[in-house]
Design brief:
This protein is mostly helical. It is built from 18 helices and no strands.
Length: about 300
């Protein structure tokens, strides 16, 4: 379960303590490292350990050793591979006069050092250590493809995208090597489901999506494109004072400044009934209908 996700079932502190305890008991750092590899089902290679011991005197040997195992040459190897290689080496020793069991497993120190020095430190900080340069480039390309080159601010969303890219790259590599990919595919589908990116989830009916989306989310999406303009505090205060307090005072028969403000505003929009003095009904009808009460128009007059 842990190996399928690229993790160990112990934290870094516990692994360091186990290594130090084995060093005290076995009185050999090499034997202690081999015992750690056996316990954690890691690949053991004496040449890798000697390289780490020489190049990392002031750093954690156990962490640096595990990081070196993540290069393509040793990727996905376990302690079973160590036992198989040692058994094969013993068989060769029986036949050949010159021992050469470790020739195929020799490690090029210059190759490892030059490869690690050419990797951008920002990629190592973002994706973690232990990968080779081509794998970092593949991860970065997949991440940009998934995010569209946009900066992801949410840490949870960013972590999910990173795991998706790592699983995709791992599935492609294992497929090329003829290894089983069922666990990786299941883990990838689980991540896609967490982010609602499965094809079946995208085919949901639009009305179902609308029903599930809260009103506040729709308001936020709307205001992201067309923000609500800020209201003027003075206009809002006047509106409440006139049309709420003033109206309330008018209804209650309270004569005060609020009632006076309300009456003044009402007076501005009040329509007065026209008064006709010394005019007959015919003039009033002409004013109302705008023409001759008999219904004649200019064309009839011309005729």
């Amino acid at each position: 379960m842990y190996r399928g996700n690229g993790y160990l079932p112990f934290c870094n502190t516990c692994v360091e303590e186990m290594y130090n305890n084995y060093v005290e008991k076995l009185r050999s750092r090499e034997m202690a490292m081999r015992r750690i590899c056996m316990k954690l089902d890691l690949y053991w290679n004496k040449q890798v350990f000697e390289l780490v011991e020489r190049t990392s005197p002031n750093r954690s040997i156990i962490r640096n050793y595990i990081g070196k195992l993540n290069i393509v040459k040793y990727l996905n190897k376990t302690y079973d591979d160590t036992l198989a290689e040692e058994a094969e080496a013993k068989d060769k020793d029986r036949v050949e006069t010159t021992p050469s069991s470790l020739a195929a497993d020799s490690i090029d120190e210059n190759e490892l050092d030059s490869e690690s020095s050419s990797i951008n430190p920002e990629l190592i900080n973002f994706w973690g250590g232990g990968f080779n340069k081509s794998f970092y480039e593949e991860l970065e390309s997949r991440y940009n493809e998934w995010t569209g080159g946009k900066e992801i601010s949410d840490p949870t969303e960013k972590a999910l995208y990173k795991q998706i890219c790592i699983l995709e790259a791992t599935i492609n590599r294992d497929t090329a090597m003829g290894k089983a990919i069922d666990k990786s595919v299941n883990a990838l589908n689980s991540l896609l489901g967490s982010m609602n990116l499965k094809p079946t989830q995208k085919k949901e009916d639009a009305e179902t999506i609308y029903d599930k989306t809260p009103m506040g989310v729709w308001i936020k999406r709307w205001e992201d494109n067309e923000p609500v303009p800020e209201s003027k505090p003075s206009g809002l205060v006047k509106y409440i004072t006139v049309w709420f307090l003033g109206h309330l005072c008018k209804m209650a028969g309270i004569k005060n400044s609020y009632c006076k403000m309300y009456e003044d505003e009402i007076a501005k929009i009040r329509v007065e009934h026209p008064e006709y003095e010394e005019e007959d009904d015919e003039d009033m009808l002409n004013d109302i209908f705008g023409g001759d009460p008999a219904g004649t128009d200019k064309e009839d007059e011309q005729v």
